[in-house]
Amino acid sequence: MFYVIQYQPLRLIAQNNLTSMYLKQMLSRHVQFGQIWKSWFSSHSLVGNKNIILMGPPGAGKTTIGRIVGQKLDCPVIDIDDDVLETTWNMTVSEKLQDVGNKQFLEEEGKALLKFSASGSVISLTGSNPMHAASMQHVKKNGIVVYLDVPTAVIMSRLKSMKVDRIVGQSPGISLHDILQFRKQFYKRWHDIRVLCGGDVTPEVIAEKVLDAVKRYQNSELETFISTRSSRSGRSMEKESLKYFSDVVTEGLAPDRGLFVPERGLPKFTAGEWQSLIGATYIERAQVILERCIHPADIPASKLGEIIETAYGENFTCSKIAPVRHLAGNQFLLELFHGPTASFKDFALQIVPHIFAYCIPKSCNYLVLVATSGDTGSAVLDGFSRLHDTDKQRIAVMNFFPEDGVSPIQKSQMIGCQKENAWSVGVKSDFDFCQTAIKQIFTNSDYTGFLTVEYGTALAAANSINWARLLPQIVYHASAYLDLVHQDIIPFGSPVDVCIPTGNFGNILSALYAKMMGIPIRKCICASNENNVLTDFVRTGVYDLRERKLIPTSSPAVDILKSSNLERYLHLIANEDGQLVTQLYNQLENQGYFQLQKDLLEKLQQDLVGGWCSEEDCLAAIHSVYSTTGYILDTHTAVAKVVADRLQDRTCPIIISSTAHYSKFAPAILRALKIAEINQNPLSQLHLLNSYSPLPPVHWGLLETLKRKGNDDHQVCAADMSMLMSHIETLIQNHFM
């Protein structure tokens, strides 16, 4: 336990002339804004009889901001230090510390808070209140807890200026910084709302942010979802027809075959808010960003934090989760392969299963369907197999993959990742057939209704058509930029380009979303292999599948002709014109192509640049990079590297998404490195690669998966819808009945 020795009181009191003058100045500037908020709350109610409870580290400004918020709302303001502790103890906090000693102080503070009650007030807690569980449970019952999240460096500076140079409990070898970091776990545990507070933000602005956050907390109807194919006139405003985050997670695909998107768009972060995350860990960044994208009515902040910790805490081989590595010149690699199945899909699919389990009704069984071009399958199987046993009894997953359209190691991995609630089925066709089949199954109301009535089982999707899949990907694009700033490569605000190997358009769409949210991304470079339909589309505005046949390559995640998430981007640049999106995709389905209007193509080309790479150039890039740096690119990253070399203008850094570990594509890598004898056994291939002491090392998770017995045991299905549906029914009967 740690406590604060207040050599000068942390709360802002009139005896401090500088603070008093500052407070009076701030309060005088709030009259007009305060009247607006009083008017809003008079008609919408503050929080009924509940309190707004401000929580944060010592020096966060809780007292000052509490007074400003109270004045705006014309409601009582209670400072726990002044109005509860010192009144209860009849002595100052410093005197109490001297009287009872460090170890007893927190308990005495908690006892005082347990006897306290209030309603309809703004309450400023002490920095140490959240460390006493019983008293926090007591005050939280009748309040909304707002965490004033101030960067530790800013707090350190403030404490120094306030002449607070030591935290109680501090001993030799333990820094003030470490103790402040230690306390964060308690703030994370109790908060309902987080307000980011940068170093240069005035108390006035923070008070406004607190009120905005409370308003959002109270009104989940501000964050509803629509289909990319819904018309404005056709959108029902009836409350029972609104779609929330929990709904779109479980439903996956909209009834009209469109994709769900947030009706009011994604949240925007200020430059100061992004800058407050520069020194944060990946997990901390993820929680802040996802809290703003997921309403607490769907997943409370504390539960979301638990999910993120579970997903990224121990399952990734690198402590930085998504490290950024300098490659050469102005090129940097965003390494997205440190998860358990060695691809970028792990970032979403270690989180989504837990989100899904939390959001779905407890009274129904769910079968999650997924189509994969290679990496998604093993990531889905691994993610859902890590659920708690009780959740695995009611949630199963079936993965369809092109039997002859993935690498041998990818196939072995998908089969090896099968568990009691997770199965793989090879389909004698390509990825586009698998993905289209799943979409048709979801929109076949007779079939889905039959499964619900006959077996009590609903279907759900885990492909990137599911909105929840995209959100964790926004995090790593934002985090990569912040890492470059943290490493002093660029100052905040300087632009970067990103180059992403692109198949289903989900990863590059997430980068575009990060840009919309305030990350200074200049251009997103869309890198294709010989299946270059997206390159042609970005350059011409014509999406043309006529007379195109899928070309199998060594970068199978890009072997896609129908890019599902492109629909979300077109809906965005078309100003949410669902009728236009419907028209385009009906034409694509019926005639095999569509063409964008000139104004939409111009909008698209402001964001995107497209290029493609041949198989020969892909393998040559792997060889070249290894020869000059000792680093091995996987085949998808090599595609992006070739395209980046061709299209970047070298006026700013470029971040290349390294979307998979080279171990997954060992035969192609061995060919690229001109190693003559290649054993056909996947495990032998990895051992051969490992003998070269490569950088980065061979992925441990792949080695472990390939060592498991039974890696040839899986079902194979013809490219026939009725056969796929038969497999689904059989699985349901075996697992749920």
UniProtKB/TrEMBL annotation:
GO molecular function terms noted in the UniProt entry: pyridoxal phosphate binding
Pfam families documented for this protein: SKI, Thr_synth_N
Sites bearing N6-(pyridoxal phosphate)lysine, chain numbering: K345
Keywords noted in UniProt: Amino-acid biosynthesis, Pyridoxal phosphate
Domain Threonine synthase N-terminal, first and last residues per copy: 240-312
Amino-acid biosynthesis recorded as keyword: yes
Cellular-component GO terms for this entry: cytoplasm
Cofactor(s) the record lists: pyridoxal 5'-phosphate
InterPro entries, per database record: P-loop_NTPase (IPR027417), Ser/Thr_deHydtase_PyrdxlP-BS (IPR000634), Shikimate/glucono_kinase (IPR031322), Shikimate_kinase/TSH1 (IPR000623), Thr_synth_N (IPR029144), Thr_synth_N_sf (IPR037158), Thr_synthase-like (IPR004450), TrpB-like_PALP_sf (IPR036052)
GO biological process per UniProt: amino acid biosynthetic process
Pathway where it operates: Amino-acid biosynthesis
Family recorded in the similarity comment: Belongs to the threonine synthase family.
Protein name as annotated: THNS1 protein
UniProt organism field: Turnix velox (Little buttonquail)
